[in-house]
Design a protein that fits this description.
Blueprint (H helix, E strand, L loop, with lengths): L7 H5 L1 H11 L4 H6 L4 E3 L15 E15 L6 E8 L4 E6 L14 E11 L2 E5 L2 E4 L5 H8 L4 E3 L9 H14 L9 H7 L4 H9 L4 H31 L13 H8 L6 H14 L6 E6 L5 H14 L3 E6 L2 H15 L16 E5 L5 H13 L2 E7 H7 L5 E6 L8 H7 L7 E6 L5 H6 L5 E5 L9 E6 L5 H13 L3 E5 L21 H8 L15 H10 L8 E4 L5 H13 L4 E4 L12 E6 L7 H8 L9 E6 L5 H12 L3 H10 L3 H5 L19 H17 L7 H21 L1
Parallel strand pairs: 4-6, 9-14, 9-15, 10-12, 10-13, 11-12, 13-14, 16-21, 17-19, 17-20, 18-19, 20-21
Antiparallel strand pairs: 1-8, 2-3, 2-5, 3-4, 5-6, 5-7
Bound molecules: adenosine-5'-diphosphate and magnesium ion.
Magnesium ion binds next to helix 11.
């Protein structure tokens, strides 16, 4: 008897196993059982030829009536035309290469034929259908097997292994399968109405009815959620056992001094969240908190206050940004907010002051070495840098707090990598402006506490958003930009590409680390958008175009993108912040975090190429000062759907509503980033919003089990499944890193 780990070759023979391994990566019985049919056909008769619809799939049991080959006119080789019949009606089959088919499709042969109905010269036909001819002796048996049952259709595994052969392999595997241990305990199955694992596989591969398929699929989905939730439950328990240093601000310290000089009052929300964080930091248990706050809600100040209280108690803090542009901006704004408090040990610095260091990948070595030293000696109370860099290279004297800013890729591994930095685990605060629906919070951030900043500071101006889809208005867009500049304001123009032919290839594989270019690639690409049918706007071309545009003559135009040298990027951002650049043409490097209050207009070219949440983020760059913000979504798309998405963005400023819209189409695996890690991800079926109830149920079950039995001693099957899921995750992470 076979079990899930038995090599396929042992059960079905090497000739069948090889193509499955080669083309689909299936090596074991379990792999094959998890290679579920794409869909199911109901076997029909040909009786109703009048109701055939072009483009529809049909599957019929029929007999070959005639078959003939003839040479092709344009090419070498022979083609084969056959006609099949169910006794009453006929259907033509066409093969453009007779090779291999000629011997099988002989008049009188009975078989199963599946394909897509096409129309050619007034007759219905199937081109290159999948088929399986029955053995003459076993015809009766075969026919019986098909009547009344659904026919599973699989992805083929190369030429030698079409769908129906995969199906045969699955049948053999099922027939030889011994008892499999079910990782979902029987009481849970009963409570949730789940079929057991053996039935699940049988119903997936040999269903009789649609209801069978639904029951099996439901169980599979449940499994996905259940496994993730079990991992999270275990992680939470492991986290509860961790110990670290409590960090409490001291009287007459940095935090007090900073509060005294803060140029504004904290909003009620900022005060509340600050209090939550202070309470966490004062515990000997490491904080693990997610702060989600609408774009512009003032997360940085909250984080800075937390960092200062850690410094007050003798520790250091690290601030991790996703891009170099953002890291540099944080460095500049933190040093300027702190003033002499950031000049500890320097001439003119405050006595209680500390130092702030910046670390980015493209700094000159000397500067970087200085920063590394300051971090290691403890002189730098705050170290600001990009995620990758800090994670990999920096030693701290006493790291007390890690703040991760603008984490929209919801990877768990980035957070975990940090926990091993200090001698003891640091407190961790993760900040994101992408509102996270409940199910995501519970899955991806299931091991964290959550705080939310919903309100914006007073005195903010509303952002008006318009879709510009009529070319008649394109020029008007630039005139509007010129008017804003004449009124003393600044403009961003965002394009989906950098330009520079020959370099703009297809997006490369993303790594576990972020560079600015990664971010551009990852975000300037919305999967739900149809493929572009024309050249998209690029930063380099747009710059030329705008310089030549009479409406903008005399304006100071500059560009910014991830392929520029770090120094140049810095200089441009500095100049833009100082107001000496009027129009900044950029890629999505400016998407997150960039904060220039005097910028009032955001023009997004080819706006249909960007995701909903991304557009919301981009638009959050304007309307940060006293003057109202304007966002123009320029598009030439003809797609109705794309236009609707843009109109939805224009219709509301509520990030949460938009995030839901965005997530509606995404699968959990997509959000977790599991998709990049290859075909064998555990998360393929769950829909974050549609399956909310199921995820909640699985969470409740998993947490109850782990609470009662943290080591899963009573649940060996579950323990094994978790171990192998974690192995896969680990392997995928290593591959990417
Ligand atoms: P985000 O949450 O998007 O990261 P920031 O932290 O960049 O937002 O804050 C946006 C702007 O609002 C910054 O210029 C910041 O100085 C300002 N700000 C933050 N808190 C307040 C407040 N309570 N009152 C007025 N302005 C504030
Ligand atoms: Mg921010």
């Amino acid at each position: 008897m076979a079990d899930l780990s038995t090599p396929l070759g042992k059960v079905v023979g090497q000739p069948s196993a090889s193509p499955l391994a080669k083309h689909r990566g299936l090596h074991t019985v379990g792999d094959l059982l998890d290679f579920v049919p794409r869909r199911y056909f109901e076997p029909g008769k040909l009786t109703d030829l009048s109701s055939l619809v072009e483009g529809e799939d049909v599957t019929v049991v029929a007999r070959v009536a005639r078959a003939a080959t003839r040479p092709m006119r344009q090419r070498k080789g022979k083609m084969l035309n056959a006609t099949i019949t169910d006794g009453d009606h006929e259907l033509d089959l066409t093969f453009f290469s007779a090779y291999g088919h000629e011997a099988r499709l002989v008049p009188g042969a009975l078989g199963l034929f599946a394909g897509t109905v096409g129309r050619y010269h007034q007759t219905w036909q199937l081109t290159h259908p999948d088929y399986q001819i029955f053995d003459a002796e076993q015809e009766q048996e075969a026919v019986e097997q098909y009547t009344g049952n659904l026919i599973p259709i699989y992805l083929p595994a190369g030429k030698q292994m079409p769908s129906w052969k995969v199906r045969n392999v699955a049948q053999i595997v099922l027939a030889s399968l011994g008892q499999i241990a079910d990782h979902v305990p029987p009481e849970v199955r009963k409570r949730r109405g789940l079929v057991d694992i053996d039935s699940m596989y049988r119903l997936l591969h040999q269903p009789s009815t649609d209801a069978d398929v639904s029951r099996a699929r439901y169980r599979r989905k449940y499994d996905e959620a259940f496994i993730v939730q079990t991992v999270l439950a275990q992680r939470r328990i492991a986290g509860e056992g961790l110990r670290t240093t409590a960090r409490v601000p001291r009287e007459g310290g940095l935090l007090e001094a900073f509060d005294a000089r803060m140029p504004f009052e904290l909003t009620a929300g900022q005060q509340e969240v600050s209090a939550e964080i202070a309470k966490d930091l004062a515990c000997e248990h490491p904080m693990h908190r997610l702060l989600q706050g609408e774009v512009g809600s003032g997360k940085t100040v909250v984080a800075l206050r937390a960092m200062l209280s850690v410094i007050d108690s003798g520790g250091q803090s690290a601030l991790l940004a996703p891009t170099e542009v953002l890291a540099s901006q944080h460095f500049r704004s933190i040093t300027s907010m702190l003033g002499d408090l950031a000049m500890g040990g320097m001439l003119g610095g405050s006595e209680i002051g500390t130092q702030v260091s910046l670390l980015t990948g493209s700094q000159p070595t000397g500067v970087r070495r200085r920063s590394l030293l300051d971090a290691a000696s403890g002189d730098a109370g705050i170290v600001v840098g990009t995620h990758a860099l800090i994670q990999e290279h920096v030693q701290f004297f006493d790291l007390g707090l890690v703040v991760v800013d603008e984490q929209h890729r919801f990877g768990v591994e980035q957070r975990d990598a940090l926990r091993v930095k200090g001698n003891q685990p640091p407190h961790v605060l993760v900040m994101t402006a992408t509102p996270i629906p409940r199910t995501v919070a519970m899955t991806v951030f299931g091991d964290m506490e959550t705080s939310t900043l919903a309100e914006l500071p007073k005195g903010r101006s509303p952002i008006a958003t318009h879709v510009v889809s009529n070319p008649v208005w394109f020029q008007r867009t630039w005139e509007r930009v010129a008017e804003e500049v004449r009124a003393g304001h600044q403009t961003y123009v965002v394009c989906p590409r950098i330009g520079d032919p020959g370099v703009d290839g297809p997006p490369g594989a993303t790594t576990g680390q972020w560079s600015d270019e990664d971010v551009e690639v990852a975000f300037a690409e919305d999967e739900s958008a149809p493929p572009a049918t024309r050249e998209l706007r690029s930063v380099l071309e747009m710059e030329v175009e705008l310089r030549d545009n009479p409406a903008l003559s005399g304006l100071r135009i500059a560009i910014l993108h991830g392929r520029m040298a770090a120094d140049d990027k810095d200089e441009v951002m500095r100049a833009f912040a100082a107001g000496t650049i009027d129009v900044l043409v950029a890629t999505t490097v400016i998407e997150v975090g960039v904060d220039v209050a005097n910028a009032t207009v955001m023009v997004i070219m080819d706006a249909d190429r960007f995701g909903i949440s991304q557009l919301h983020q981009l638009r959050g760059r304007v309307g940060r000062g006293r003057s109202p913000g304007l966002c123009l979504l320029v598009t030439e798309t003809e797609s109705e759907l794309a236009q609707q998405r843009l109109l939805a963005v224009a219709a509301t400023n509520d990030g949460f509503t938009l995030a839901r819209l965005d997530l509606e189409q995404r699968r959990e695996g997509d959000v977790l980033g599991a998709r990049q890690s290859g075909g064998k991800s555990q998360l393929r079926l769950l829909r974050l919003l549609r399956d909310e109830d199921l995820i909640l149920a699985a969470r409740e079950d998993a947490f109850a089990i782990v609470d009662a039995d943290p080591g899963l001693e009573q649940h060996p099957a579950l323990r094994d499944v978790i171990a192998s899921a974690l192995d896969d995750e680990q392997a995928a992470y290593l591959e990417r890193g």
